[in-house]
Every structure is written in structure tokens, then in C-alpha cells.
Amino acid sequence: MQVYDNIIIGGGHNGLICATYLAQKGQSVLLLEATDGLGGLATTREFHPGYRVSVAHSLSHFSESVVKQLNLLDHGYKPSSDTLDTIGLNLDGEHVVVSGGQVSGVDSADQKTYTDYLSLLKRFAKMLKPFWLKTMPRIGDNSLPDLITFGQLGLKLRLLGKKDMGEFMRVATLPARDLMDENFNNDLLKAILSWDGLIGSKMAPRSPNATLLNMLYRMSGQHHGAHSLPEGGIANLINALHSAALDAGVTVQTGALVKRIIIEGSSSGLAATGVELADGALIYGTRVVSSADPKQTFLNLVGAKNLEIGFTNRINRLRCDGYVAKLHLALDGLPQFTGVDIPNGRMIIAPKLDAIEFAFDDAKYGGYSQSPVMEIMIPSLRDQSLAPNGKQVLSAHVMYVPHKLKGGWTDEARQHLYQRLIDTLESYAPGIEQQIIHGELLTPADLEKTYHLSGGHWHHAELSMDQMLMMRPTYEAAQYSTPIPGLYLCGAGSHPGGGLMGGPGHNAAKEIIGAKK
Amino acid sequence: MNSNPEVNDPFAGERLKESHFHPRQALLNLRDAWSSWNGYKFADYYYDEEYEYFCVRNSCATYDICPMQKYIVSGPDAEAMLDRMVTRDLTKLKENRVTYVCWCTDEGRLIDDGTIFRLEADRFLLTCGSPSLAWLRKSAFGFDELQITDMSDTIAALSLQGPTSCEVLKKMGLVGIENLKPFCIAHFPFAGSEGTPLMASRTGFTGDLGYELWISPDLALAFWDALYAAGENYGIQPYGEAATNMARLEAGFIMPGMEFNEALKTIHFQYDQTPFELSLDWLVDFKKPHFNGRKALLKARDQGAEYTLIKLDIEGNKPAEESFLYSDQDCSKEIGYVTSAMWSPVVKANIALAMVETAALKGSIWAEIYYSKELRHHSKVAKCTIQEKPFWAPERARATPPAAF
């Protein structure tokens, strides 16, 4: 009987990254992916014959350390040196554009403030950056490495200088609304600068919590928060990760849905010893490393009966309901957005902060907004292979669309929302409706089903103060090891969190390698 | 159930509930010495606490356990759910048997103790001192084939304790009750009702021969009358909280609020206890691969308990209530404190339960006792001796059949 050193559940980017680090250390690694493609939410899949797209449509904070350590460039990764413009769409075509650290379409006061604002945020982001790739200290444990991490954070904060440190403490949990109002005049600018702190979360401009931390987290990448796309699109990154995994010796098996994690009990307690696949096959491993979300991992694959009572209830209470839907359109040609020459940036429809806030208000009570806000890309402009010659693919993240819609996601509700989205797009890109060959709307409930993702949440669990850092996903499981010996977490539900970043996969592998010594 | 005739009582929701046996117990509560337990009006004593205590030890007496919390846990997952919740191995518990259990938080701190009755393969009765539904529901999360029913108000229960208790039940017509072994359950017909509506278990909280009797509330008063008629010549008498506290201390049983602070109600860090601190090591079965708090308890066991609950025999006759304990007669080094103390009439000894620093157990133990004599306060320092066995554990508590009277 073959016993792997590691069985990795889930072939998203974190699963691939963790697997590769472990295999590079000479460990045997089997990676099991439930669907037919690798990449999780970054899988490029065909949604209409000849048209392909991935749910994740840009990069903002993919770890440069991971790129370097896994030699991703040698495996064909082609990161882009230029960034995507962020374009705040205006009905009349008078757009606000953030490009290369400058903003246009606003008054000179806003332009000047933006420079200062960006440089302050960059200083904060630089301070936090090392901690995204570190295991967080265990609560109540005074071990030396933990104390050092705490100490480093304190020191980094202090090194910001008195003024910046005070300012960081003041704004860290500030609602985006307050941060924007005290800095800028232009409504559209305020809305698009808040966007990256909010998307993927159940938070709106007036929510105090982790909006700024989310922004700073996303500023940890190569371009300090500006989005980009590698040559060949998202698929280029996933292919490079796949190649690196294979090269390191990882055995990759797709279409292998894990039904349960095998937990064996003896007088020395419980331990994870393998997995059972949906087809009944049993595979054994010294360690099971799950990149599935914490609810999926603990409640469905391990089972409450193998966990402790308080812990189980904390996992069950994790806030995991997704609020972002995905719209994919197969288009007959390039859509004409009013006032945009070539729509090759990241376009945001959110005319002002209240537009975002009101869309959130509807979702809070189980509805969706009649005036949805969204982020749009035309990925086929960067990667022509995504659509047949002359055709295009439109990809849009839509906020806020609840996972649990009041009355359920009936065909009627889905059709109604789809039409609202098309009508909204039509007002910014007249004629787009006529160009549609096929449209696909993925609600968070669809994302949950397709990608085996609790709540269809981008980050596996809400990235909020109570579920961040040493509380992610919850204490007793925040250092990648879990209460069950042999079971580890390596997905977005662990520190530092979600998005195409790679931190959880990297950190989990480091913990596993460290624990083995 | 509430006999309050006032229709528009503005304090209706605040008043204490009346037990299913209240009409009879109220008549016998000559001193109107009521306090409360879990929202029920509950007697501290009925006539005189020492008299009631002597009834428990020398004839028989009844204690109202209607206010005790009772939960039926049933369904195919019931055994697995309870087995994971408690520290003992429940899979070994046979049908119609009862076991004493305790359960802990994830951190291994004691939440409560109680008894579990295995009524059928998939049907358990859990009884305990404090409301526990919230913890049961948390414990049940993830077990789908399971039902938890709070039966606290819908089962009438009475504890009959003392040397003549078996004889009284025999007189009452419980055929074969004398063959019921400790921690066993039997069912009996009652008063021409269909089937066997009266459940008897050989359990109790006095360390003596005794039974607990369980019946539906509509038969409660008829049951009381039949029991008291049968017991007329056997010294039957209701007893309250005060006598219970004396009897249980002699038996070495722990009380919440005295020996331990329930973990879910504890605010100060580690002011609650592990089972090891309470000398309940025998309740924790590490052969079980998993139960709540196992990991923390294993660590606690290996580290050794900082404090240990012990039984003390103290010189003199002054109860060491709330005394501090010292390792020397000069009282210079404090090593612990008394949790419960009394002069035990049946053992004729000055006894106590106490929490003492484990490291100090090997040395001598002295109690600083404060007492008053006709309004004058005095203090003394008395030597304490650790007792390993319960102060009171008579042969008759285990004898089957018990002696006839």
C-alpha cells in the first residue's frame, strides 16, 4: 500500500503552491482536485463553445517571493511590467482614471492629495508586507518565535515614525467612507479607490472593520495594488504553477472529489491518515493538507464528531457567505464603452460611495440591488485565445449579490438579475446587448456548487478583523496545523487570506516542513 | 401547576414554579423554609435539618428532584453524541443501567456532572443540576439523527433514601425491587395505569441505600400518597437541601458552587476546575480516542493538578467551614482552603472537603477554624488528616437484596 507523505486536497493556486514546496523538499505529494481543471476560481474554463474565461480576472497581490522561490519564470510565467488602468465609468463618458500612480478626470486638489494618499498607503503596505508570509503567533503561547513575530510587528509599527504610526492606528479600522471623505472631493474617485477594500467581503463603505487592511493586503504585490495580467492571462500563471508542481514531482489527479478525510482513532487519540474519494477509493498519507475552505474541511470532510464542541461551533459560525456574482459574456465584437477608446483596463461601475452602500443595503436583507455595482474586464483583449477570431469575452464581478437570496435562486430571479446587469452595461456601453452571443451568470450559490466553496465566498471566509491574522480561520487552527494531528490547512481560509496571492500555501508548507524537523 | 389564584398577577413571570409534589410538600413544610432551585420553590428543610438528616441515615426520607434538569437524548446518533461530550466511555453502558459522568469544555474545564440513564439502545436520560440545553445543542451540532427533549418540567421525580427505603417500596407493591442492583433501572406498574409507568433506579446523592423514582406528572400526587402510606411505619419524611448537603458530604460527593465552579459560568481565568483537581480521574477515560477536552486533559494530567480536592478528618468538633489551610501550625504558609465542612453525626468525626496544593499533600495540614460560642468569636488551629475513602459508605448501600425491616 502506498502511503504519501502529503495528500493535498484541492488544486487551486494555494494547493499547487503548497504541494510544490513540499515536493521540492523531497516529500511525496499527491494533489487531488475535484473538478477537471486546476486553479480553483482561477481555472480558465469554456463557458460557451469557443469562449473561455476564469472567475478571477486580474492579479493584484500575487506573492513575488513565491514567484522567485518556485522559479515560476522558468516554468513560463510571464508577469506583466505594465499595469491595468482603473477606470471609474461615468455615464457621460467623463471618466476618472487611475493609472501608474496618477489620477485623471478630477480636480487638481484631488490629484495632489492622491499622490500623498498613495505614498502613505504604500508605507503602511510595506510595513505589513512581511507578515503576510509569516505564521501568526498562537494566542496564549509565549514561544520565542511567536514573541519575535509580535515584536517585529511592534518594531515595524514604531519605525513608521510617530506621525505615521499614529495615523495607521487611527485609520486601520476606519470605514472607507470616512477615509475617502477626509481625503477627496470627487465622488467617482472615492468609489473606485474604495473598491479593492470592499470587493469579496460583506462590507460596504460605511462598514467599520478591515477595509483598509484589505486594501493594504492587496497592495503587497508587485505593483503596489495596481492590477495586472500576465501575458496569456490568468491561465499563464496557473499553467506555470502546474508545471512547477509536476517538475518538483507532485502527482496531480483531477476529477478526484474527496468525500471524507479518514480519521483513525486509537488510545493515543485521533489522527488524519488519508482520504476517501467519491468513488470509494481510499488513499493513505502521513499528512492531509486541505486547501478546501474551513467549513468544508472540518464540517463536511472531517465531521463534527471528530472535533471538539467549542471548536466545531466556531467553525460553523465562520462568516462565509459570498456577495460577489460573476457575469461572463461571449460577445460578437468589442463593446463600445462611452468615452473609452479601448476597454483594456479595469472598469468600475459605481458612480459614488452611496451607490455601493445602497447595493449593499439590499443584499443585507437577502435581496440584490436594482442598480448593481460592478468591475468589468475584457480579458480577450489580453489573451486572444479566449475567444474565436474577432470575438470577445467580457468578465464582470458584481456586488452585492447574496449567497442566500430571499426566496431562493430560482430561474426567474437569476434571469431578472441577469437582465438588470445587461441593462446597466447597456447604459455605459450602448449596443452591447446586441453583441451578446451567450451570457452566463454565476451567483455565489453557483460558485459554491461548481468550485466546492462554502458560501461561494472568494476568500473562503470573510476577511474581517475577527477572522484575520491569528484568528484565521479561528484559534486552534490559525497556524495551519489543526486540532487533528496529521491534518493541515493551506487554503484562503487561513492567514493571510484569499485572492490570487499564495500566502496560505506558502506558509502552510513552511509550517509542515518546520514541524517535521 | 401554579396554584396562585390571582389572575392578573403583575409578577407572574417572576414567581417560583411549584413542583409536581408541591401540594403535599407544602403541607409538610412546617417552617416555611423555602429557597429555590432552577426556578422551583424548593425546601431548605421541612421541620428540622438534623432530624431530616437522621431520617436519611436511620429510616428513610424523600428529596424532591423535580427541579433537577432532565433531558432525553434519542436517535441513532445519541450514543455517539453523548460519548463525545462526556469523559467516560458510554459505549460500555448497557440498557437499563445508569452511570455517573462529567463533561468539560474544549479546555478541559469541568462544566457539570450528572447521571446518564440508558433507557434503550438509542434513548438516554441525562440528569444534572443546572440547565444544560445550550451546551447539549452545541454538542449535538453535526449529529443529524438525534433529538434532544428537555423533560425537566414533564417528569416528576422523587429520591427516596435511607435504610428502610427498599422495604417501603416493597410495601408499596414494587415487586422485586429488592433485586435491583446499584445503578440499575426497573419499571413497575402503578395504580392500575396501563403498562409500567413507574421507573425506579437505584441511585441517589446520599451514599446510602436509596432509589430515585420517576413518573409522569399526572400520577405524581397519587404516587406520593401511595409512597407515604407505605412508609408510615418506616419513618418516612421529606428532607430538603440542608440535609442533602450533609449526607452528600459524608459520601464525599461534590457540589457545584461548593467544590467546583461550572466552567461555562466562570469569568476569572482558571477559577474553574479540571476533573483531576476534583479527584475525578476515574471518570476520564483516555482509552477513548476522542472526547471533548481530551487533548487539554491529557496535558493537564501530565502536568499534574496544581490543586487537589481531598477529604479531611479534622481534630476537635468545630466545623472548619470556609477555613484556610496551612502547612504549619503557625499558619505561615497557606496551602489551600476548605470547600465544605461539618460535624458528621454518623461517622462521629469533624469532616471536610478541601482544595489543597498538590505539592503540599505530603506534608502536614492545619486548618484555621473560626467559630463562635454564645456570641463570642474564637479561633483555633486544628490538625487535619487526609482520608482516602468516603467518610460514609455503609455495606447496605451496595447489598442486594438489602436487609428487610
TrEMBL record, chain A:
<comment type="subunit">
    <text>Interacts with COX5B; this interaction may contribute to localize PYROXD2 to the inner face of the inner mitochondrial membrane.</text>
</comment>
<dbReference type="InterPro" id="IPR036188">
    <property type="entry name" value="FAD/NAD-bd_sf"/>
</dbReference>
<comment type="function">
    <text>Probable oxidoreductase that may play a role as regulator of mitochondrial function.</text>
</comment>
<dbReference type="InterPro" id="IPR002937">
    <property type="entry name" value="Amino_oxidase"/>
</dbReference>
<protein>
    <recommendedName>
        <fullName>Pyridine nucleotide-disulfide oxidoreductase domain-containing protein 2</fullName>
    </recommendedName>
</protein>
<dbReference type="Pfam" id="PF01593">
    <property type="entry name" value="Amino_oxidase"/>
</dbReference>
<feature type="domain" description="Amine oxidase">
    <location>
        <begin position="15"/>
        <end position="498"/>
    </location>
</feature>
<dbReference type="GO" id="GO:0016491">
    <property type="term" value="F:oxidoreductase activity"/>
</dbReference>
